[in-house]
Amino acid sequence: AIVDATPEIVAGVATANLVDPARSQKNMDKKVLRNDEDGIVVYSYIHINAPFISDRDIVSRIDRSYDRATDTHRLAWRATDEGPPRIKGVTRVERSEGSWTFSPAADGKTRAIYTSHTEVDGFVPAWIINATIRSTMVEGLRGLRESVAQAQQEE
Fold this sequence. Notes:
Blueprint: E1 2-3, H1 7-19, E2 28-36, E3 39-46, E4 56-67, E5 72-79, E6 91-92, E7 95-104, E8 110-119, H2 126-154
Parallel strand pairs: 4-6
Antiparallel strand pairs: 1-8, 2-3, 3-4, 4-5, 5-7, 7-8
């Protein structure tokens, strides 16, 4: 997808979105456990609100990188055990990884590439997983574009 801002601006906004609890999905509580030069660690609790499907939680480590030669910014995340202990009755997501890659496009814009792979564990019907994945991608890109536009207006 193409975003109407430089890679530096888009990467900064994407980082802010990943750590801001106010920018969580409607069914998610998020807490930043650490945010320093070594990376970001975020605890997320996902309220499922469906019968026979337990809530989920995940601790994610987000690493930031920048390639000066290509002016490419990357945010890569993966599940980690750097967070709080498990909660009884909540399924911990142990296998999850993904990234945002932001590289220059024509006219000062950014090519944004999103990848994600998560194994939700436990019983969850495939149609629920597929619908969630689609909405997460669409909402993630929409939210990124809206946040970038807002950041540019505030400049």
